[in-house]
Every structure is written in structure tokens, then in C-alpha cells.
Amino acid sequence: MSDASPLLVSETRGPAVTTERLPVRIILITVGVTFLILFLLLPLAAVFVEAFRAGLGAYVAAITEPDAVAAIKLTLLGAAIAVPANVIFGLAASWAIAKFDFVGKSMLNTLIDLPFSVSPVISGLIYVLLFGLQGVFGHWLQDHHIQIIFALPGIVLATIFVTFPFVARELVPLMQEQGTLAPSDKAGRPSSR
Amino acid sequence: MAGARGLALKRPSAIPGFGLALGFTLTYLSLIVLLPLAALVLKSASLGFAGFWDVVTGARTLAALRLSFLTSLFAATVNAFFGVIIAWVLVRYRFPGRRLFDAFVDLPFALPTAVAGIALTSLYAPNGWIGSLLAPLGIKVAYTPTGITIALIFIGLPFVVRTVQPVLEEFDRELEEASATLGANRRQTVFHVVLPSLLPAILTGFALALARAVGEYGSVIFIAGNMPFISEIAPLLIIIRLEEFSYPQAAAIGTAMLMISFGILLFVHLVQAWARRRFGQ
Asked: Are A78 and A159 a contacting pair, CB within 8 Å?
């Protein structure tokens, strides 16, 4: 089968044995692209059509209305606190996991991934159970006039929980690739540079 | 943590900061994740075992749990199938718009789930772009379990594509050439050489998509219709109990969901370990 078609050339120009015949390629591309359009692009298009239905002016008016501005500000503020906290945690966790061997390491790995498999509803529920009025610390918090649930600290906590594993997940493989040699060891070896 | 005893460092003095790093990690993990989850289990334990069992096996809870897990399983299976095709097409073929489609795969990660839910509902409602095409055929999608499944497919797709894609990219083409040299045709090569080595990645993607789908709330509630016994998912039932201030009941349903999820994830993990032994290098 020749790879003559300029639009549908396979990635390798090498022997045709490592790719599929042209009809198969066309069918697979059609199936994949159709699925993406149907399930991802159409919903996105619907969002934009809906957002701009009443025109650009209405759109700008909607996002500059005080309530919307306050909501956007609050969301950004929550993220601005939660993300750095998770970055620090991710650095510490990946340093410990990638550079050292210790008992319970795979357990720690699993626990870090835990928030991925916990429903966001449950993650909200647990903080209500802890800090809500009926919660474990509810009365103590009320006596000291500290509000966590239905306030910024609650938003930050929930955001931290759902984004908890991301930084560590990305950093662990990177740090593992760097290896466990200390900088001084590397400097001690003869270098060509 | 109480254990300098159990720590066997690879190079005891070579790298600093073990105590600080691990100590901080464990403290943060405990405060943010473990203690709150323990509070959840404790709260549901306040019902006693009989009470817990009554809540979890109540008709409405059972229906919600069954709906959540069945639609999630189905959506994750669809995603595993089409996700592999999409990853394959994106890695192996060159066609116009490839990079664009590649970028769009991450869309469900970036879009707030509530926005996705509203968009899907407006698409599949009887007067929507797709819903109006299906309505004459007598197919109802929005406000039925089918709608829930579609929302779950939407949010789960990137998990499969993004776990399979890198493995496929690094797959050694020489293995395929060797297979062809040995007389296998293309179909045999793909199904007996390439796909088996992708299996652990496919399973990981499947498990992630499944876990995400089971817990999904934002994108589902808009399209589900939320009728008890028919289209009411388990996370929604938790919210309903919470709003009724039935905290122990909410905690019990949450604990049941956690246990079933972990059971499924453990099972997938075992299959994965088996696949690694069977097909791994």
C-alpha cells in the first residue's frame, strides 16, 4: 500500500508493515474524530452559543455585574491559596517518595492518590462533618467565632482536597529520573566538561 | 511519624531533608485527607451496624448506588474503547487538525463540571441540537440514565486518552517490524503485540475514568432529571440527606460509595498486576 495521499500519510515513512492499510486508517481517523466532535466539541460549541446568544454586550454585562465579579474574585482567591499549599506539599511528598526508600512507601503513594477516587460530594461532606455546626469541632469553632464552612476557609479546604494529588503525581516521576545521587557524588566523578 | 526504626535509606547521608519532607507530607496528608475521611466513617458508625445497613440497603439508596455504578461502568467501558482509538489515531496518523483535536481532549479537565452539565443538557434536551434529532425517533436522552451516561463519557474520556497516549508514543516500533518479519499480518501484530503491552495503561485509564464517573456530581445533576429510583445518582442522594440535616445517613451513603469504589479499584489493580506479569517485558 503506497503512502501517496498527502493528507493521510502515516507518521513513519518507513516500511508499510508498521502501519495500517489506508482504508483502515481512514476508518479509525473518522471514528476517533467523530467521537471527539460529538462528545467534546459540540458541548463546547453549545457553551459559546449560549454565552453569546444575547450578543457581546449582554455577555460583558453579565460578567461585570457585581455578583459575578465577586464570585470570580472568590474563586480566584481560593485557588490562589490552595494551589501554593499543594505545591509545597507536592514538593515535600515527591522528595520523600522519589529520593528515599522507606517502609510504607507504596501505601503513601496510594494515599496521595486517594482524593482522585473520592467523590467531590464526599470531600465536601467530610468538612461539613468536621467543621459544621453539628460537626466534631462545630461548637468549639462557634464559641471562638471562627467560621470555616460557608466561608473562605471551607472553599480553600475543599479546593485543596480535590487538587491534592496533582503536583506530587507530576513531580515524582521527574525526581525519580534525576536519580538518588547527591550533587556531591556527581561532582566527585570525573567529568568531561 | 514514629519510625526512624523502619526507615532504610538508600544512602543514609547523601541526600538531606528526609525527616522534614516525610514529616510534612504525613502531617498535611493526615490533616487534609485522612482525618476528615476518618470523621466520615466515624459519623456513619454512629448509626451502629444495623442502622448503617438499613440506610445502605434502603430501596432508594440501593437504586441510586446501582445507577451510579452501572452508568459509570458503562461510560468507562465506552471511554476505554474509543479512548484507545483516539489515542492511536493521534499518535500514529497525521491528518489535518490533529493538533487541534489533541488539545481538545483535555477540554473536560478544563471546563467546570457544572458548565459541562448545562451544555450537555441544552444539547440533548428535546429542543436541543441533538435532542431534536433524536426526539422523532422516540429516543429520550436528557433526564434519563442515558443522559447520565453521556455526561460520564464526557468527563471520563481524557483519562483514558492521556494514560494510553504516552505509552503508545514510546512503544518500540522494532517490535512491530519483528512481528511482521516473523510473518504476522498487521491485524495479528496489533492484537497480539501492540495492544497487550498497552493493556496496563488502558486499565489505568479505565480505573481513573470509572472512579471519576462514580463520584461525578456537577455535570450529571443537570442532565439527569434526578427522579428518585430512576435517575437519582448516589452523590445527589448524599446532598439531599445533607440538606435534610440527616448527617449520619449522608455519611453512611458516602462510606458505602467509598467502600464499593475501593473494591472496584482494588480489583482493577489486581487485573493490572496480572496483565503486567502476563504481557510485561
From this structure: yes
B131 CA: distance to closest CA in chain A (Å):
12
- The pTM for the full model equals 0.82
State chain B's mean pLDDT as an integer. 86
B93 forms beta bridges with A10
A98 at the B interface (CB within 8 A)? no
Contacts of A132 in chain B (CB under 8 A): 247
CA distance B110 to B114: 12
* Predicted complex ipTM: 0.81
A10 or A123, which is more confident: A123
Beta-carbon neighbour count of residue B108 at 10 Å? 23
Say what the pLDDT of residue A177 is: 80
Nearest to B235 by CA among B113, B65, B92, B47: B65
Interface test with B, best of A11, A20, A29, A76 (most B CBs within 10 A): A29
Asked if the C-beta of A36 comes within 8 angstroms of chain B's C-beta atoms, the answer is yes
Cβ neighbours of B219 in A, within 8 Å: none
For residues A101 and B9, is the Cβ–Cβ distance under 8 A? yes
Per-residue model confidence (pLDDT) at position A15: 52
Residues contacting B152, CB < 8 A, separation 6+:
B71, B72, B75, B76, B213, B216, B219, B220
Mean pLDDT of B145-153: 92
Dig out the grid coordinates for A151 from the structure.
Answer: 466561608
Sequence-distant (6+) residues with CB within 8 A of B246 are: none
| Closest by Cα among B236, B176, B28 to A20 | B176
A14-23 residue pLDDT tens: 556 678 888 8
Contact residues on chain B for A100, CB-CB shorter than 8 A = 7, 9-10, 15, 18, 22
Grid cell locating A125? 461532606
Mean pLDDT to the nearest integer, A123-127: 89
What cell numbers appear for A173 in the block?
516521576
Residue B1: the pLDDT is 43
Q: A40 and chain B: CB distance < 8 Å anywhere?
A: yes
**What is the distance between the alpha carbons of residues B256 and B65, in angstroms, rounded to a whole number?**
9
